[in-house]
Amino acid sequence: MAGYNNYSMSNNAVAAYQTGEKPKSKWNKKDIINDLREQSEDLTVDIKSLEKLPISTLREIALVKSSWHHTSSHFNRTDFYMVDASRIEEEDLKIEIKEQTEKRVKSHYLEWSGTRNHPKATDHEEWGTIRGNWFYGDSGIKKSITGNGFKILEEGEK
C-alpha cells in the first residue's frame, strides 16, 4: 500500500490505525485497559489495580513496539505500538504493579503563599498515601511528588 494519505501519514500508517496499532502518545488509559480486557479474560492481575496506575506506567508495561510507519509531509519515521496482555502476566510486572498502586509515607512538602514578588514557603510534614505521582495527605491535600520541595521522610504504616 505505497503512497500517502493527505500528506499526514502513509497508507500503511492508516492501515495500522485500523488494526489497533498507534503511536505511544496516542494511547490513553481507557484504550489500554479496554484492550487488556478484550485480550485476556483470565488475567491473574486485577484490572482494578491496573486502573490505579499512571498512564506512563501503563504504557511502559502493556505496550509493545509493533511496527514503524512514515508520518507527516517530511516522511518522519514513527514507531507504532499495540497492547500485549502477556507482558502483564510476567512475575516482575505483577510485583511492580502492586508496589506502584499505593504506598503509605510520611512526607515533607512546601506550601506556597504570598505574591509573585514576595513568595513565602511554609514547611509541612504529614502522613498520607502515594498513588502514581501524587501524594494524598491525611488532611485532604493533594501534592505532586515530582515537584521541588517534596521529600519522602518515612515509609510504612501510620
Instruction: Report the C-alpha radius of gyration, rounded.
Output: 21 Å
Question: Tally of extended strands?
Answer: 9
- Quickly give the structural class: alpha+beta
Low-pLDDT residue intervals, each spanning 5 or more residues: none
What does the model show?
The protein is α+β, with helices and mostly antiparallel strands and 158 residues long. Helix content is 30%, strand content 37%. It folds into 2 domains: 4-100, no CATH class; 102-155. The chain contains 6 helices and 9 strands; from the N terminus they run ββααααββααβββββ.
Q: What would the keywords be for this entry?
A:
alpha+beta; 5-stranded antiparallel β-sheet; 30% helix; two-stranded antiparallel sheet; flat; 158 residues
List the helices and strands and how they pair.
Blueprint: E1 4-5, E2 9-10, H1 11-18, H2 29-39, H3 47-51, H4 55-62, E3 63-71, E4 76-83, H5 85-88, H6 91-101, E5 103-114, E6 119-131, E7 134-137, E8 142-144, E9 151-155
Antiparallel strand pairs: 1-2, 3-4, 5-6, 5-9, 6-7, 7-8
Short précis:
This protein has 158 residues and is α+β, with helices and mostly antiparallel strands.
